[in-house]
Amino acid sequence: MQNKKWFQDAVLYQIYPQSFADSNADGIGDIRGVIDRLDYIKSLGVDALWFNPCFESPFVDAGYDVSDYLKIAARYGTNADMEELIGKAKQAGIRILLDLVAGHTSIDHPWFQKELHNQGKSAEGDRFVWTEALPKDWDSTLPGTPAWVKSPGPRQGWYLKNFFDEQPALNFGWVNPDPNQPWQDSIDALGPLRNIESLIEIIDFWLSRGVSGFRIDMAFSLIKDYDTNLSQSESAKIWQRIRKWMDKKYPEAILIPEGSEPRQAGDLAFDADFFLVIFKEHSSLFNNQSAGRLPFHEPRSAFFDSAGLGATNIFTDGWQKIKNEDPNRLVVMAAADHDFNRLNSGSRTQEQLGAAFTLLMTWGTVPCIWYGDEIGMRYIPDLPNKEGAICNPGYNRAGCRTPMQWDGSLNAGFSVADPEQIYLPIDPSESRPTVAEQDQSKDSTLNLVRSLIQLRKEHPALGTRENVSVVCADYPFIYKRGTSHMVALNPKAESVEIDLPEMENASNLFGRGISIAGSVVSFEPFSFGVFKIEAKN
Questions:
Q1: How far apart are the C-alpha atoms of 491 and 508, rounded to whole Å?
Q2: Cβ contacts of residue 75 below 8 Å, gap of 6+?
């Protein structure tokens, strides 16, 4: 697959629409609020906005339970508002990416409601998975594993869910349906084929209105065979079919998966892999367990924590595996997102963020910034559940979804609504960071992020095209970009010194707290730097 140049050079910015900016004083962020803040977004230097789901929904799971894929949720505005945002963002050199939940809907979706009121299988093929008798051998004990939910309406039996009970799984069939399980359709049955065609219609609807692509939620779990490799591979084939159609009609449009694309399924359909917070490669760098533990995470120290007890090998091994398979494969990575904690969380503080942001912008990934991280907004612990934010007692996502902090006015400038109406509480700290305050300080996290993005654009070697080679894998963490640049990071609270002849004549382009005397490089606590080095013959 040939990389789209715009995406290969892009820096992404992820917006949680209900928490970014409220334009109509109802306490919930909206599209008009994003339009009003486009000048700020442009000032960051980012190239594309990735929206968490913004389609019509009852919001049991914050919009990941869609009731109408072709309609913007009323809380955010209208389709016309989205089209206006797309147009104005384009004028500012910014593209729009939408989050597409492809594997399930809300129970409120008309597709589900129609089947709920049928007395048996639809003649045109069921869009969802129904059974009149519970399978005896279904293992639904693992977190996130699809499970059966008793029908809440006239139809007898149970339906298969994906995550919450209110999220019925769409039917994409089974590769090897069991004849003793009549609820298992084949992948070429009418219901699965209808759903694939509907995915194409949804994608076409929004691409034709100027959207530049989609991040696909649970992209490789469409098919539910017990054999995980087989189900993921066959799910990937569905996206290959969609990609062939997209390449003809919308050749510049991109698809980003939730996770890494299976490699056993033939030609790749997605434009990148994604190192997510739920994957060990990302977790080993940033996850300090401050939001609680995901059930499948090992408790360990993150590399970007002050104690200096972490390691980089899990991340670098995962990176190298992808590059060994395809040196040109792009990888999207964020320091944080909507599913776990913020970069500034637990004992991690503002002064520790520079090293993490430096890696994010210079390693060679397509970087993605979670709204508010660019000013060092805190993860707020122990917030009440809001729209499915607490998935289990040890996994609280609410604290990373709090409203954007714009200034020192009411509700931190997010909304003029009564504070009791605000979607989630504003950070109560008197020292909470704001855009207005940090905009005026050249040493702020905000201006550090802006400078890093600008540095990346001015020095293409820091982007996605040049190879990465690790020079020192511990503390400090040092790596080369191509033959011309060196990046050095010390994210722990102790000084470090290293003898590195290759840095002897290096020119400091960016950073704090690193000094060079001959071949000796000295690192203050929480230091970071980007250097131009002499290429050796």
A1: 18
A2: 18, 26, 28, 30, 59
Same domain (yes/no): 452, 486: no
Residue type, 189: A
461 in a domain, yes or no? no
Same domain, 337 and 443: yes
Helix (H) or strand (E) holding 216: strand 213-217
Q: Could you tell me if 250 and 213 are in contact, meaning their C-beta atoms sit under 8 angstroms apart?
A: no
- Of 167, 147, 148, 152, the residue nearest 61 (C-alpha): 167
Q: Would 226 be classed as within a structural domain?
A: no
pLDDT tens, 140-168? Answer: 654 456 789 999 999 999 999 999 999 99
DSSP H helical ranges for 289-434: 313-325, 353-362
Specify the pLDDT at position 134.
86
User: Nearest CA to 202 among 72, 100, 51, 58?
Assistant: 100
Are residues 50 and 72 both part of a single domain?
yes
**What pLDDT digit, counting tens, does each position of 421-450 carry?**
999 999 999 999 999 999 999 999 999 999
34-66: pLDDT as tens digits = 999 999 999 999 999 999 999 999 999 999 999
Q: Where does the pLDDT of residue 172 fall: very low under 50, low under 70, confident under 90, or very high at 90 and above?
A: very high
Domain finish residue from 424, 456, 488:
456
CA-angle at 184, arms to 178 and 188, nearest 5°: 105
Asked which of 437, 456, 475 is the last residue of a domain, the reply is: 456
Structural domain boundaries, residue 73: 5-101+272-456
